[in-house]
Amino acid sequence: MSASEGSPATALPTVPKGIPPAEVEVDEDLVRALLRDQHPDLADLPVHPYATGWDNVTFRLGDEFAVRMPRISGAVPLLRSEQRWLPLLAEMLPVPVPVPVRAGVAGPGYPWPWSVLRWVPGRSAEHGEPAPGEAPAFGRFLAALHRPAPAEAPRSTYRGVPLNTLDSVARRLALLPGLTADLPVDWTELARFWDAAREVPCDVPETWVHGDLHPKNIVVDDGRFAAVLDWGDMSVGDRATDLAAAWMLFPVTAHDALWEAYGPVSESTRTRALGWALFFGTMLLETGIANDPPFAEIGRRTLTRVAASL
Predict the structure, then answer these.
(1) CA within 13 Å, CB half, 303
(2) Given this model, what pLDDT does residue 15 score?
(3) Residues ≥6 apart with Cβ < 8 Å to 139
């Protein structure tokens, strides 16, 4: 998920915002036609729909590959960023990532670039979170990722940025209580925390960040943290964006082990990370209520853990 944060809403919406509709519909026949035209050695492999996300649709291609195709125009620069940077990042990470192995271009019936990726086995964590004992492995992954980036690395306007630029959270904190009366959180306390957290300055150097480490982008294999998907939002920025995943993936009781494996985390950085967790929790819950029940459940779980940490 990577829709940018816009300017403050002037009126409270009557319905939540969900995953946007596809601008281009993609099916197996189109995927096979593009492969036949551009990568004919792969065109006879079985093609099956696998997943549809906010930005991209993914097809399984044989046993070893996947095809990743933008479904909205805003995802195109993100896919190009993956093609350029993910092969370099993959070399320094302790878990597999879906490295692009072929690049596709626009063709009949499809207007944008696309990728053939190396297949990563396992299931996304929306179907089952990593075991709490995997928190140290996840902490080590974050420590390996959060390294200095080249000067020409991408920057984002909505990930790795100061919390006070994320205008949508206050709107969601006003909207969601009326839609989730059974959620055991104190919305007033969450709003007070958000007002305080968004004023906490970044106190650490900028690093690479993934930017979108919610459970749908984490692969779990028999309870084991196995891989990380969807790198379109990778950028240079505040590592607190990624540290928020602690609340999206693990119970609060596992967090000490995660921080110990990651390395020292200042109180300011942990506060910003909790603020980012509140951002993601409200965004996922709003999106899920609109048209994606798994996102709604992830949002509920994340906000419950955030509230327990205040």
Answers:
(1) 31
(2) 62
(3) 257, 258, 259, 260, 261, 262
Q: How far is CA 53 from CA 1, 71, 120, in A?
A: 7, 9, 17
Q: Look at the alpha carbons of 214, 216, 222, 225 in this order and tell me if their dihedral is positive or negative.
A: negative
For the chain, what is the radius of gyration of the CA atoms?
19
- pLDDT at position 59 is 97
Q: Which of 195, 196, 240, 168 is nearest to 6 (CA)?
A: 168
Q: If you count them, how many residues does the chain have?
A: 310
**DSSP element (H, E) containing 88:** helix 76-90
Q: Half-sphere exposure of residue 305, counting CA atoms within 13 Å on the CB side? A: 26
Among 247, 79, 221, 94, which residue's Cα sits nearest to residue 154?
Answer: 79
For the sheet containing 123-124, what is the strand order? Answer: 123-124, 218-221, 224-228
Which residue ranges form the domains of the chain, and what is each CATH number?
A: 28-120 (3.30.200.20), 125-309 (3.90.1200.10)
CB 165 within 8 A of CB 241: no
Return the structure tokens found at 223. Answer: 């309870």
Q: Are strands 207-209 and 235-237 parallel, antiparallel or unpaired?
A: antiparallel
Handedness of CA 142, 143, 148, 150 (dihedral sign): negative
Inter-residue long-range contacts of 31-36, CB under 8 Å, 24+ positions, other chains counted: 31/59, 31/61, 31/67, 31/69, 33/107, 33/108, 33/109, 34/104, 34/107, 34/110, 34/114, 35/61, 35/67
pLDDT < 70 regions, the chain = 1-15
Tokens of 193: 């925390």
Q: What is the pLDDT of residues 23-43, one digit of tens each?
A: 999 999 999 999 999 999 999
Contact (Cβ atoms closer than 8 angstroms) between residue 272 and residue 162: no
Question: Which of helix, strand or coil describes residue 207?
Answer: strand
